[in-house]
Every structure is written in structure tokens, then in C-alpha cells.
Amino acid sequence: MSWLFGYNSPQVPPTAPSGPPEDDKTRGQQQPGKSEEVIGGRTNYSFDSSALERAAKAAKEIERSKYADQAVELTKLQELTRQKEINLQEKQIEERIVGMKAEGQRMAEEERRKTLIEESKHAKSRADYQDQLARKRQEDELAMKAKMQEDNLRKQEESIKKQEALRKATIEHELQLRHKYDLERIEADVKARAKAARENRDVNLEQLRASEEERRKTIVEQIKTSGTVIGAGLQEFLDDKKKVITVIAGLSALAVGWYTAKRGTSVTAKYIEARLGKPSLVRETSRITPLETIKHPIKTAKQVFRGSGDPLKGVVLAPELESRLRDIAITTKNTKRNYGLFRNVMFYGPPGTGKTMFAKSLARHSGLDYAILTGGDVAPLGKEGVSEIHKVFDWAESSRKGLVLFIDEADAFLRKRSVVQFSEDMRAMLNAFLYRTGEQSRKFMLIVASNQPEQFDWAINDRLDELVNFALPGQNERERILLQYFKQYIADPATSGARRQRLRLADFDWVQKVREISHKTEGMSGRELSKLVFGWQASAYASEDGVLTVKMIEDNTAEAMRQHARKMDWLADEKKIDVKPTKI
Length: 584
Ligand SMILES: Nc1ncnc2c1ncn2[C@@H]1O[C@H](COP(=O)(O)OP(=O)(O)OP(=O)(O)O)[C@@H](O)[C@H]1O
Prior knowledge:
By secondary structure, the protein is of the alpha/beta class. It contains 16 helices and 10 strands.
């Protein structure tokens, strides 16, 4: 009904009393009952009652119309529909507002998350930078301290040298003076004595003669007296038969006792040696004998309580070989733990490549003792060889801990019977060895090492479970070996700060230098490389100030390389010579 009274919507009242309300477009633009006049720029408001009148009139017409009720109903329905539409729109708007709020929150969350990530990134990079700064600062401080210490040391050394020189000069002066006075005193003394002797010569001669005569008489008297006493005693003893028999029996008993004791001791010693003593063929062993325990208790205790450690500690090898040896070490350790049968292994390769070193380390790691023999010691034993070999295996079998039996240069006595003319003794020794190693042992692990594995008798090869090649070190390994020994022989002593240590390092990048030398030393073995570094150390010690310089390193290396080349020439010559089979 609102359109009747002209409010809520700018409607023009219907002109036809029976028709439905007109379209919005047909409605008037002014609200009924109100008119606005603009006079001189001001708006004057005045009430227009004509609209009301029109409305009243329209209402009356509607009342009079026969469709009045339907019109009202329709209008009501339209109103309801519109209200529902409006409600729906309101709801949609509300939902949209809620959606927008949620979206706004999500975006704000996203923004906050991004900000947090950025902040943490910033914080991290700031922390990293500060850490770097701190490290650098620390390094600088350390370097400065080291330099200051070095300066102080140098100053101290200089001052000590000066003091030493001063003291030496003083002592020398004192000695010269004393020597001069002594010479003068001796001269005066000699002169005085010579003068006195000259003056008293006759008197002295008379005195000497008298005293000599007196001494002669006394000796003659003594001889006479003792002859009489011994003669009387002997006469008395021989006259008494009982005494003579007793003395003879006593002396015989004494001789028999002494002889028995001597033989008994040697037999017991031999028995103890066979059970506990080290066989003479064993050059070196970690097995502790009771005698060793008594002689060196501290060393023995250290050995007993030493941990197993890394089996490759200090041994530098190519990575593939290292991993293979690690496997062998693990197998050996587990065999010992489970009381299993040990494997027989052959290490072959050029001399000085770490075969012995690793065998010792393997024993330590696996909780076994080690014993080192050399094939070269067995060959010259001749007839004794067989019993010595049995002694070694008996001794190895009696080990409670288990033993790594390492035979270096094993080819010296285990060579092919067919190629070399074998002596009977050598054949017997080889047979003894084959007999004792026919079956694997739970007591010892056999490792044979050789530079010429092709020389082994076939029966020996048959007894070996694993062959490991120790090749010459490559460039990387050479660098690692040189660095290891440089640190051990030079860098550690030079930086130990020990007062009596005179070894010093000149100012150069030794890591770079060592790398350079590792490129030049191709063909050198681990032993040659360790000796090379040792030579550097020796040169520094031999120098006046004990400082190792780049020049010393270079000179030494050049010399070592010349020597290595010469050795290689000899080896090549040796190979060229057609070696005739020799009887061994
Ligand atoms: N791979 C290596 N890593 C570190 N040092 C090594 C290596 N090889 C050799 N050396 C050095 O050389 C020395 C001798 O090594 P080792 O006795 O183990 O050689 P080897 O192969 O048994 O030689 P040989 O056949 O002459 O007995 C070691 O004491 C060590 O100083």
C-alpha cells in the first residue's frame, strides 16, 4: 500500500482504479506532498497535499472496484516476494562478507608466514656471517699469538745465545789464566825438586840400599816359616788315614753335586724354553713371556691394556685395497671371537708397501698376538731347519690368545721344488712346513708375504685362502704418506714447544710443497717416502739453526730420486740376467 501514499518509492498513483500498480518508469519523479523550489540558490521546502488527495481518491476507487481484494492480495504477495528477495540478497552479501573476511585472514596468515621465513633466513645468514667473523677473528688471534710466541722464542734464544757466548768467553779466559798459573807452578816445583834431588843424591842412594836389604831379609824369613808350617800340617794329615778318606769323599760328593745341579738346570731351562720361550726363528713378537713381564712390567702392562684400534691406522693404501683389508680384519676378529678356523693369506707386492705394518695392525685389532719370521733365516739352517720349523708351530699352537704368524720373504724357502735344484734339507723343511699347515688352525693365522709370489711351490698356493696385492702407492697415496710423515717427523716436533727441541720450519706452505713432491716421486714405495721425509728432518737438524727450508727439501728430494732411479736400473739389469738355477 505504500505506493498509495507516495513513500518508499517514487511512484505515481495509478490512474486506472482497477489496474495493477504502474511500472516504476511511469511513476513521478517527485514525492507526493513535497515540493522544492530553488530561489536565488536556496531551496525552499513546501508541502503539496495534492498527492494525498490523489491517494485518497485512488483508495476509494479501489474500494469500490470489484477486484479490490485481489489487488490487495497481489500487492501483499509482491511485497512478500520482494522482502524475500531482499533477505536473500542480504544473506548472500553476508556470506560474501564472511568469505572475504576468511580470505583476508588466510592472506594475512600467508603474509605472516612469509615474513617469518624471511626473518629466519635473515637471522640465519646474520648468524652465519657472525660465526664466520668470529672464526676469522679467532684464527687471526691464534696466528698472532703463534707469531708472538715465535718472536718471543726467537728473542729468548738470541738472549740465551748471547749469555752462552759471554759465559763461554769468561770460562775460556779463566781456563787460560789457570793453565798459565798451573804451568808456572809446575815449572817452579820441578825446578825445586831437581835442585833438592841434586843436593840429596848420595844420602838418598844410601837410604834406598838399606831399605832394599831389609825387604829381602823379611821375604826369605817368611818363606822359611810358611814351608815349615805347611810341611808339618801335611805330614800330620797324611799320617791320619781317617782324615784323608773323609776329605776325598767330601770332595767327590761336592763334584757330583755340582755336576748334577749344572745338568739339571740346563735341562729345566731347555724345557721351559720349549714351552714358554720364543723360538730363535721368531724375529719379533708381541707375545709376552714371563721373563719379559719381569724385565719390563710397565711395557707389558701397556701392551695388555692397549685397545684394539683401527686396523689401518697409519697405513695408507688405495681405497679399494683399504676396504678389502678392512673386510679381512673384520673376518679375523669374528673368527677369533667365535673360536673359528683362521684363513691363510698371502700379501704380495714390491718391498716397503706396508705388508708387515698391516699384519701387525691386524693382529692388534683382532686381539691376537703377532710373530714375525723371515724366510731368509730358515734357508741357511740346514739340518736344524726342520726342528726349528716344528718349534715355531709348537710355540704358535701353545698360544692362548691366538697368533698372526707372519712369514716375510716366504719364497726364500717355500719355492717351487721343480724349478730350483733343491737340497735335501730344503725339501725336508718344505715338507715340514706343508705338514704343519695342511689344515687350518684355530690357534694361528698364517700370513705369507713375498715380492715374488710366482716362485711359490704349488702346494703352498693351494693352502692359501686369499691373495692380496700391495701395489706401489699412487699419487694420492704418496701425498697422504708424505703428509703423514711430515706431520710426525717435522710439524709435530717443530710446533711441540719443547724447550730442547731445535727443529723449526721456515715460512712456506708445506702442504703445497708436499703435494708438489708427491707428483715427482712416482714409483717410490711407502718405505722410501717415509725415509725421504726423515731425510728432510735430518737435514734440518744438521743445519746451524735447525730450520727446515724449501731448498733443503728440494735438494734432498732430488738426491732421493737419483738414488731411486739407480736402484731401478740395478733391478732392471738383474731381471735381464738369465739366472741359472742354483743349489740351495
Ligand atoms: N702404505 C704405507 N703407509 C704408510 N707407511 C708405509 C706404507 N708402506 C710402507 N710404509 C713405511 O715403510 C715401512 C716399511 O713397511 P713394511 O715393513 O710394512 O713393508 P713391507 O711391505 O712389509 O716390506 P718388505 O717386503 O720389505 O718387508 C713402514 O714402517 C712404514 O714406515
